[in-house]
Amino acid sequence: MSEGAQPQQAPTSASAVVRTEYTTRVVWGEDLLEYNFGKHHPMSPVRLDLTARLCRELGLFDLPRVSVAEPYVASDDELATVHTREYVAAVRRVSADPDRPEPERGLGTEDDPAFAGMHEASARIVGGSLVAAEAILEGSAVHAVNFAGGMHHAAADRGSGFCIYNDAAAAIQRLLDRGVGRVLYVDVDAHHGDGTERIFWDEPRVMTISLHESGLTLFPGTGFPSDVGGPGAEGTAVNVALPAGTRDAGWLRAFHAVVPPLVEAFRPEVIVSQHGCDAHHLDPLTNLKVTVDAQRELALSVSALARRFCEGRWIATGGGGYEVVQVVPRAWAHLVGIAAGHPVHLQTPTPQPWRDYVRERYGKDAPTLMGEGADTWWRSWEIGFNPNDPVDRAVMATRKEVFPLHGLDPWFD
Q: Where is the Histone deacetylase domain (predicted)?
């Protein structure tokens, strides 16, 4: 198991559960369900409803060091810290009149259908991540979670890939504007975090690391190892382009072979992470094959990195994830539990009231356990590089491009 990972069997005593004393701010409000592209769109608000209800039934919202905060609709000035004002105006126009799309700006397309109130719904997600950033900045929380966020495809001047405004980028920019010297952004969505990367392409104070399925087989077709950042910021864009079919062991091996050494070299003051859970083997839109168990373990590893390098300061967002009953609620409830210092064990039964709600409201059978019983053992990179393994080749391609830019040896560090 990796650093920070928890055993996959039920604990036999209270001491078997790792807890921290960090205060945690969770952003949630029913208004976030208004981000809704329509009944048949993959980005269903059902996933948020079921996540919040599962967190509540597990008691995560009621933990003594957890506070739940409502999001707000971010102002145009706040949006303009990472988006052009022309684009914000275009979103407002389409939001007011969905029958007049602006597809050249990614508004009113198949991926991003126009809907009434789109501006407010999208800006509210940004407001949620700004609430998280402010909690970190003011010291009222050390960890913060906006599982409705993670809209990583939105670029400065256009929407893309189910994303209208880029909330994680806005949170990062707020941190920088308020004096944070270096921010690490880690994106483990199956899709490349292209929007966030591009917004900070020339910004040496931000390192973006995206661990995703290769653009050769998946939207948006970007995020290759040679994409390392703009002039003066070389080495601050990091892309691990994994082969389709990558499973738990390869996914976790790739993360640990790339992320911890770069975090140690970059020395961030805050970590912002995007936990799109569409790398799951049941996800209908992607080709990676990981489990909820591995996604939980990776979140534990991000938390451990924040604890080691950032005095715990960590903002976690959601992202993609389109198996809205079996996968998303469990993955993000684990994320909330980890951020709250109260990891939920994989053999914990899902609460019966939650399962009843899923059946009555959506006519589907919910999972009965919080885990899948997966074997998440992974080989440390120190064991050696296997040139016949496509995951190892992907990892080495990234290390060879980026590690020397940080004084690291791509073979041994």
A: 41-336
* Structure tokens belonging to residue 302: 């991000």
In the numeric block, the tokens 């996959």 are attached to 8
Tell me the residue length of the chain.
413
Cβ(148)–Cβ(98) under 8 Å? no
**Cis ω before 42 (30° cut-off from 0):** no
Quick check: is 113 in a domain?
A: yes
Q: What is the pLDDT of residues 309-319, one digit of tens each?
A: 999 999 999 99
Q: Which domain holds residue 385?
A: 21-406
The answer to whether residue 153 is catalytic is yes
CA 49 to chain centre: 18
196-216 pLDDT, tens digit each = 999 999 999 999 999 999 999
Structure confidence at residue 21 as a pLDDT band (50, 70, 90): low
Q: How far is CA 13 from CA 9, 10, 339, 372, in A?
A: 12, 9, 21, 22
Amino acid (one-letter) located at 313: R
The total number of structural domains in the chain stands at 1
Q: Where are the alpha helices (DSSP H) in 25-166?
A: 46-57, 76-79, 85-96, 118-138
Q: Is the pTM of this model over 0.70?
A: yes
Neighbours of 146 (CB within 10 A): 29
Side-chain-facing half-sphere of 222: CA atoms under 13 Å: 15
Q: Which two tokens stand for residue 141?
A: 């929380």
* Annotated catalytic residue within 83, 119, 152, 153: 153
Q: Is residue 135 part of a domain?
A: yes
What pLDDT is recorded for position 22? 75
**What does the block give as tokens for 347?**
């053999």
- Domain presence at residue 340: yes
Q: 26-38: per-residue pLDDT in tens?
A: 999 999 999 999 9
Return the bridge partners of 207, or none. 184
Taking CA 146 as the corner, what is the angle to CA 142 and CA 152, rounded to the nearest 5 degrees?
A: 115
pLDDT in tens, 357-394: 999 999 999 999 999 999 999 999 999 999 999 999 99
C-alpha gyration radius of the chain: 20
